[in-house]
Amino acid sequence: MIVADRKPLDEILNSIKDCDRIMLAGCGGCVTICFSGGAKAVQLLASQIKIARKKQDRPIEIIEVTPERQCEYEFIDALAEDLKSVDAVLSIACGVGVQAMTERHPDTVTLPGLNTKFMGYPVEHALWDERCAGCGDCVLEWTGGICPIARCAKKLLNGPCGGSADGVCEVDKELPCAWQLIYDRLKKIGKLDNLKKIREPKDWRTSTNAGQRKIKFEEAML
Ligand code: SF4
Ligand code: SF4
């Protein structure tokens, strides 16, 4: 899932400082699961903004909405009528949601209330770890299901680097060395031979390095 974190309140307040009436738009998808942008987050942030603006002696009106998914036009086109009366939308969806709102409602300014971080997995309650960087050419088959792109600080395809020690990454002592994890996993599944092959440099054109990517599912066009 996409994991996002709320921007600091001061930054949010500054972005809407000229607004008297806004729509605060959450999303019922990923950001609801990671607590940063669901209906409860909308409620909480709306209260915080109203209190802060009251203290500034500049009250603000807020329309609170949480479409099922902010990244799909089916769910956000219905907001058009309400948008006529607001100065801006403050979106607490991921960056895709913010851009979807901007594209579907070009006459309204949509401001981001979250920092979209990564695609991750909940390793424990309320704690998400990055697992995929969307490189566009998955190598998990030969790394034992552990991603060296998202989880190795140097994105090494032939690891570990010389700094790995006691299973810990030299870049951040709080992180396990991804290549130690890969080694342990390959050993467990009897695939250590995978490490004997030197991997050629990756073709990063499948990642964001070659600009915006598109996917068209031909089967769905039938
Ligand atoms: S190899 Fe690429 S596609 Fe596969 S998990 Fe890692 S970043 Fe994601
Ligand atoms: S210590 Fe491991 S995870 Fe850290 S940069 Fe080196 S190979 Fe990558």
Short description:
By secondary structure, the chain is α/β, with parallel strands linked by helices.
Structure in words:
- The protein has 8 helices and 7 strands; from the N terminus they run βαβααβααβαβββαα.
- It is of the alpha/beta class.
- It folds into 2 domains: 2-117, Response regulator (Rossmann fold), CATH 3.40.50.2300; 133-207, no CATH class.
- One iron/sulfur cluster is lined by residues 152-154, 156, 159-161, 163-164, 169-171, 177-179.
Largest sheet: 4 strands, parallel
Distance from N terminus to C terminus (CA atoms, Å) equals 29 Å
**Which runs of at least 5 residues are low in confidence (pLDDT < 50)?**
none
For the record, the CATH class of the largest domain is Alpha Beta
- Please compute the radius of gyration using only Cα atoms: 22 Å
Order of strands in the sheet with most strands: 3-2-4-5
Topology overview:
Layout: E1 2-6, H1 9-15, E2 21-25, H2 30-33, H3 39-55, E3 61-65, H4 73-76, H5 80-83, E4 88-91, H6 95-104, E5 110-112, E6 114-124, E7 127-132, H7 148-151, H8 178-188
Parallel strand pairs: 2-3, 2-4, 4-5
Antiparallel strand pairs: 1-6, 6-7
One iron/sulfur cluster is lined by residues 152-154, 156, 159-161, 163-164, 169-171, 177-179.
